Amino acid sequence: MGKIKRLTTSETEGIFKKIMNFCTVENSEAVLHFTENKKIPLAEYIAESANKYFGCQDITYEMVMEGDACFDFCDCPMVTINVLGIQAAEQRERLLKIEDILGEEYDLEYLRELIKADKEKRGR
After folding, report:
1. What is the pLDDT averaged over residues 84-110?
2. How far apart are CA 109 and CA 88, in angstroms?
3. Strand, coil or helix: what is 87?
4. How far apart are CA 104 and CA 97, in angstroms?
5. Burial classification of residue 30, based on how many CB atoms lie within 10 Å of its CB (0-12 exposed, 13-18 middle, 19 or more buried)
């Protein structure tokens, strides 16, 4: 398979890097990065959009954060965006920690061999 370049970064050069780093975690909450200078907490974006575009009444940031609104797995686009945003942010944070250990490039086949050898050594 060869070497894989790191996906998680704070760089915003190029569309791929922007997409892979659009939704991050800051202070334990998902944050959307629209531009370098414009970022907004996901829950705030969800509440504002639900009220403005989808006819919801009085949805607040706090309600979204507590799971009392826009989290009911109905067919509303704001529910979908909320769930996917949380999922993307959490998965990015986990990958970020792994890539901080592995560096700028890594080889999955090599890592697979290392894990296999370690398991065999430990008798698992």
Report:
1. 95
2. 25
3. helix
4. 12
5. buried
